[in-house]
Amino acid sequence: MLRARWVLLISGLLGFRVGMVGFPEWQVAVETSQVVAGLVRYPAGNPFFIYHTKLWTIVHQLCAPLLWAGVSEIRLSLIISGVLGMLTFQALAIFVYAFSRDVLLAAGAAVLIFASRAAEYGAVYVLYLLGNENTYGIIGLSFCVLAVGLIGSGCYRSGGFLLALAPAVHPSLGGWTCAVAACAVPWRSSRWRHELRPAGKWFLIGASVTAASLLVQLAFIYRPPDAAVDFSAQEIAAFITFWDGHRRPVDIGSTGVLLNFSALALAFVWLTAFAEELPRPSFLLLRVTVAAALTSIALMFVSWIPPEKLPTPVLVLMPGRVLNYNALTYVALVIGLLGHYRRTLWGLALLAFLAIGLLFADYSMLWPWLEQRGVEYHSPVRTLWVVGATSVALVTGAAWSKWRTLDRPAEAMLSAGRGNQRLTPAMRALVFAVLAAPVVGVLVYARPASLIFRDRTNDVFLSQVAAGRGLLLTAGDLHLVQLRTRRPVLLDGGGLDGLLYSLEAGPEMERILREVYGIDLLNPPEEARGSGRIPPMATRRVWESYSTEKWREIARDFHVTQVLTYPDWTLNLPIAAHSRRLLLYDIR
Q1: In angstroms, rounded to a whole number, what is the distance separating the alpha carbons of residues 171 and 60?
Q2: What is the H or E stretch that residue 269 is in?
Q3: Is this structure's pTM higher than 0.70?
Q4: Could you report how far apart the first and last alpha carbons of the chain are, in Å?
């Protein structure tokens, strides 16, 4: 267990530094935490308020007290960016360690996977490991992989605790992961039940924390509207069909689906042919991989069913997101299995081939980094070619090694082993030199936070917006305005896909779209379809046609006092403030 702790420590420190310094970003969880902390107040029936108070995650419950105590939104977003990096790197590293039992390889592999972007192939939406505002998806998936990876590394107590805590971090991903893990445990084996017994106590402790978090959410945070009227089944189906890109039917030919089939095949081969060669706890990790792949493939077909024929809870849980588990972990699985054969010449050679191939493939971060320095080059090497070739070679090499063990005399095997040992130090040095390159790269890389974090505390225009009273009406897909101004907004046009987490807000949101933005929920403009956002160009045409009297009518009906737009919009309203990027209008 001590070596596993070193993996978590090294990868965690690397990830926190990379997330906080190299890839900092505003975090949407901080925006909801403003409302939970009471720093931003809304009228009870506002759809964005309903969303904020209903969205359950322990992340809000941890962040809100920090905001209330005086930690700024910028500082908290930086800290969360670092935590996201820490969890992502730890999850990938512990997954590799479960099979390889090599601390340095595991930590280096996490950085390699991140720098090569080899784990960013989502099935229904792009997977971002860092540098993105969507806190929930990143922290939820990484947390679940970390929990399962710890169990696969033999850390049953900590793994069981985190697995039970996962639904409190991300209810949908955590729930799916717990169900998949339960299916993967060989319950009929008395030996496994005895081995996993230490995890039971800590799983119950984690479940108690999750239950307490849910109780706090229901008792102190959630504020249902006075007249709770959910969307009808027809309206939910229309929203998913026309607006929500995350719940569309999964494309069977997508890369994320391909990685699930590949993970299923690779894990099945090792479970049936090479299981005795691996550390015993990693057997569970392979079973989880198989269970996740089979569940994902089954749910892929569920996603093809018309939404009006599916129960609402299934739609809310987003079946397609289960595919992301193996999409994130597949390359880590390959590296971990290769690491198990690192004392053979072919294993080290394949590790070197994979590392070099990923770094110089088309999807790698190397090329954008060089382009920023005036070197433009488009690599002809495809990341998936490298991963696919390595996977095939891995199976071939493992079969060859097993055949030699069974077929060759002991003397010949000893001789071959001595011969490999003479070549191993040079090959190991090559592999770790290749792994060290992305580590140095990501540690050197830094994004200036001053260019990213502009809010009411360091921007004159945003401070003028923050000084206003009443609800703020935002144009089109403007996003995270509340976060940067502490000003309540009528509707966040950049995050409409959160509607399915707060269906009570549906009727009021539909009214706002129709009467303020001039958009029909059941028949939106082509520009809006699949985006989950209010279309800016369609909104501009509508708003620029509104008379001053129409604006006053909107102000009376929806209690808005000002309108925030892009700088090239011209409304029949007086300008209150302006900047190069935005305009603020008064409604008088």
Answers
A1: 13
A2: helix 255-273
A3: yes
A4: 67
Q: How many CB atoms lie within 10 A of CB 545?
A: 11
> If residue 462 lies in a helix (H) or strand (E), which one and from where to where?
helix 460-466
Angle formed at CA 261 by CA 295 and CA 299, multiple of 5 degrees: 25
Q: How far apart are CA 275 and CA 337, in angstroms?
A: 11
Q: Is 305 left (phi over 0), alpha (psi -120 to 50) or beta?
A: beta
* Cα–Cα distance measured from residue 231 to residue 234, given in angstroms and rounded to the nearest whole number: 8
Buried b (16+ CB within 10 A) or exposed e, 312-340: eeebebbbbbbbbbbbbbbbbbbbbbbbb
Can you tell me whether residue 577 is helix, strand or coil? strand
Taking phi first (over 0 means left), then psi (-120 to 50 degrees means alpha), and beta for anything else, what does residue 470 get?
left
Name residue, tokens 């588990």. Answer: 325
DSSP symbol at 473? E
Largest CA distance in the chain: 95
Query: For residues 125 and 211, what is the distance between their CA atoms, to the nearest angstrom?
Result: 30
Partners of 474 in the beta sheet? 564
State which amino acid sits at residue 213. Answer: S
149-164 mean pLDDT: 96
Cβ-contact 480, 27 below 8 angstroms? no
Per DSSP bridges, beta strands 471-474 and 560-565 are parallel
Cα atoms in the Cβ-side hemisphere of radius 13 Å centred on 527: 13
Average pLDDT of the chain is 90
Q: What is the pLDDT of residue 48?
A: 93
Q: Which tokens belong to 312?
A: 């609402």
The pLDDT of residue 375 is: 86
Q: Which residues share a beta bridge with 577?
A: 584
CB-based contact 529:547 (threshold 8 Å): no
Distance between CA atoms of residues 491 and 510, nearest Å: 11
Residue 135 has pLDDT above 60, yes or no: yes
If one compares 379 and 429, the residue with the highest pLDDT of the two is 379
Sheet of 560-565, strand order: 471-474, 560-565, 583-586, 575-578
d(CA 330, CA 258): 10
DSSP 8-state code for residue 232? P
Under 8 Å CB-to-CB from 390, ≥6 apart: which residues?
334, 338, 350, 353, 354, 357
Asked whether the beta carbons of 11 and 435 are under 8 A apart, the reply is: no
CA distance 562 to 585: 6
pLDDT beyond 50 at 413 = no
